[in-house]
Amino acid sequence: MFGIITGLVLLMLLTYRGHSIIWVAPLAALVVAATGGLPLLEAYTGTYMTGFVAFTKSWFPVFMLGAIFVHLMDYTGAARSIANWLTKILGPKRAILGVIIGSAVLTYGGISVFVVVFAMYPLALALFREANISRTLIPGSIALGSFTFTMTALPGSPQIQNLIPIDYFGTTPSAAPAMGLVSAVLMFGLGYAYLRHRERKLAEAGEVFTEPATRGTKGDGAALRKLPNPLVSLLPLIAVIVTLNLWKWDIVTALFSGIVLAMITNARAYKGFAKTISSGAAGSITAIVNTSAAVGFGAVVKSVPGFQELTSLILGIKGSPLISEAIAVNLLAGATGSASGGLGIALSALGEQYCQLAAKTGISLEAFHRVASLASGGLDTLPHNGAVLTLLAVTGMTHREAYRDIFVTTVLLPILSSIPAIILASVGIY
Predict the structure, then answer these.
(1) CA-CA distance, 16 to 38, in Å (whole number)?
(2) Residue 173 phi, psi (nearest 5)
(3) How far is CA 166 from CA 105, 318, 326, in A?
(4) What's the CA gap between 128 and 125, in Å, rounded?
(5) Contact by Cβ (8 Å): 61, 287
(6) Residues 258/239, Cβ–Cβ less than 8 Å
(7) Per residue in 377-388, pLDDT tens?
């Protein structure tokens, strides 16, 4: 138990300090193996790499096609066209709402949160400038729209955090729609109310819009010219959502349909397709390796004797087993700084036990799916999370300036919003 806790703390501390999880995860795994009495070489080349490779084998096609899809949407200008269209409809007086909804539409359509950050920032900057709202609220607004309800709560989301539980529970992307919708409404409603409250408080204190220190073309309208029609740009996103949820296609096929449609609807940009596809495929390597590294760490944790004690401790939490699942996923997502990484570790280690508990308690596996997905979007966005670091870097903000709002909208509210979902499941409403 001590070794497992030490390994988790080491993993979290080193990733928080900016070190790559690719080498941090095996190092932390060796600490767990050493204190657990496992042969170190075998623990790394055998147990760790088995967990690493197993996750890569299962999920690499999704990561690669997803990365190609978002690169095409970014290259063609489709993602920015959609975001610009939505924010213009809502107008500058609803600048915060426009940024949230624009980010949400892109994320629910399968666009990576990293791409959403780059697509939404110049638009958020223009809207906040016109509405004279402090730039410190931009990170929280983008984060609420892309890191929360569209990623983990809304039924049918093609984001990886909503897909990983399918392998363990035999469910679908639309699992437990009632639980997901209630949680999504709470995250969106409370998050928007919080950000509007912050807007008023900052205005009262005299904190209004100020130009960023390094303003480039992204801050004006130049970057928004010659964009494709926003309605046409929506078609690839709609294709992914419809084929995945209504036609019940596999996620690999659904993403492929989105890729094909993105190229067809932007045929004039064909000269850059090959380069963009290559860039997307190459970029997927880092994402899959980072997540697989975290899962490999979980495989070593699972193999040491102390894990049985940890399992008994988590599963022994009184009340619904959904509570223990939420705690386990949250803690591991926080330790790794990754929603998908923490989710992969938790379900690879405890997924079978939760299936048995579902059969024993009569709780639907759909409920376990939704709670696992919701919990992955809680503690994952602690300060060392990669998406948070990217968001702050792109917006030119520091943790001191903007992390307070990110914490409230992407950590505190998602955790609180999981509670009603668990209550609904306890009374048989999924």
Answers:
(1) 27
(2) -60, -20
(3) 23, 26, 16
(4) 5
(5) no
(6) yes
(7) 999 998 878 788
Of the chain, the end-to-end C-alpha distance in Å amounts to 35
Tokens of 331: 């803690």
Contacts of 104 (CB under 8 A, 6+ apart): 145, 146, 149, 150, 188
Task: Kindly indicate the confidence band of residue 215, based on its pLDDT and cuts at 50, 70 and 90.
Answer: very low
Tokens of 63: 């990561």
Q: Tens digit of pLDDT for each residue in 302-349?
A: 889 888 787 777 777 888 899 999 999 998 888 777 898 889 888 988
Tokens read off for 196:
């509007």
Residue 308 CB coordination number (10 Å): 11
Each residue's pLDDT tens digit, 250-305:
888 989 999 999 999 999 999 999 999 999 899 888 888 887 888 888 889 888 98
Domain count, the chain: 1
For 162-300, strand residue ranges (E) read: none
| Contacts (Cβ under 8 Å, ≥6 apart) of 83 | 102, 103, 105, 106, 119, 120, 123
Structural domain boundaries, residue 87: 2-426
Q: Which of 163-177, 188-202, 313-327, 403-417 shows the lowest mean pLDDT across its residues?
A: 313-327
Cα angle 227-229-235, degrees, rounded to a multiple of 5: 120
Contact 210, 135 (CB under 8 A): yes
Burial of 401 (0-12, 13-18, 19+ CB in 10 A): middle
Helices (H) and strands (E) in the chain, counts: 20, 0
pTM for this entry: 0.79
Contact 58, 99 (CB under 8 A): no
Here the tokens at position 8 are 């988790």
